[in-house]
Design the sequence.
């Protein structure tokens, strides 16, 4: 399939704060790994984009694969300067930004906690079961900086997707210019990041918490949780705490989940 390259000059010309530079490379192992390696020296607001990643990773050390020029795979380095306890909101605010940019293309999308972008869902409930994952986000920290990595399937065909539960904008019937979409995504990400940063990481004061609640299909769902330490339980997802963790009520006990796999079982009843 003949896919057009990104227009690096147009991306650079359209940059807005907090982004200071954008560089597009044909191929790299991982844009997150590359920025983490220079986190101590790289300028705040640096954006690195790869037309193809050969060793992209998602949450919980999973791989992220995509054919060359079929998606958007990029990382952005920021130095928030907010209390470190608030940095748990970085993946969530990124999820809001990606969700809004994708919804603007005409694709119905919502978030599964913390930041999986699902299509085939609505903001206030699931449609068609679990939905299909079209994007993933990974935030990593080094040298007082955070590197935000995003992988979004754009023109990937059904045959090119790695697993049956994956999706792309193309499989949802949307054809979009990748350069324009990346510009819109950086705009949304910058907006969410700056207001959160300027509020010293207070997600409620800046409106981020309300935005996330509005876009998160997990809240109000009966869910099954597999925790990072190998445990599992089920309950009702009731909210997000001050550090971006998921609150789950199970048998009258409130649990707080910082990391793990969430499976949507169905709307909570009773």
Sequence:
């Amino acid at each position: 399939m003949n896919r057009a390259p990104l227009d690096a000059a147009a991306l650079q010309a359209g940059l807005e704060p907090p982004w200071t530079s954008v560089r597009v490379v044909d191929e790299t192992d991982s844009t997150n790994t590359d920025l983490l390696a220079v986190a101590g020296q790289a300028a705040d607001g640096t954006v690195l984009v790869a037309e193809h990643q050969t060793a992209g990773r998602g949450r919980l050390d999973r791989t992220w694969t995509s054919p060359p020029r079929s998606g958007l795979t990029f990382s952005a380095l920021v130095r928030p300067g907010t209390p470190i306890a608030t940095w748990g909101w970085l993946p969530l605010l990124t999820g809001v930004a990606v969700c809004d940019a994708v919804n603007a293309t005409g694709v119905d999308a919502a978030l599964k906690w913390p930041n999986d972008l699902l299509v085939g869902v609505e903001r206030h409930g699931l449609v068609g079961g679990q939905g299909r994952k079209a994007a993933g986000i990974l935030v990593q920290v080094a040298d007082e900086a955070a590197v935000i990595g995003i992988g979004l399937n754009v023109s990937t065909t059904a045959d090119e997707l790695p697993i049956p539960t994956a999706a792309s904008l193309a499989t949802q019937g949307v054809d979009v210019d990748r350069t324009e979409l990346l510009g819109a995504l950086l705009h949304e990400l910058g907006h969410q990041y700056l207001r959160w940063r300027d509020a010293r990481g207070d997600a409620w004061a800046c409106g981020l918490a309300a935005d996330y609640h509005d876009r998160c299909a997990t809240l109000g769902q009966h869910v099954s949780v597999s925790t990072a330490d190998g445990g599992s339980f089920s309950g009702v997802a009731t909210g997000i705490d001050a550090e971006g963790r998921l609150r789950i009520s199970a048998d009258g006990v409130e649990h707080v989940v910082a990391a793990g796999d969430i499976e949507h079982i169905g709307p909570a009843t009773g």
Q: What stands out?
A: The chain is about 20% helix and 35% strand.
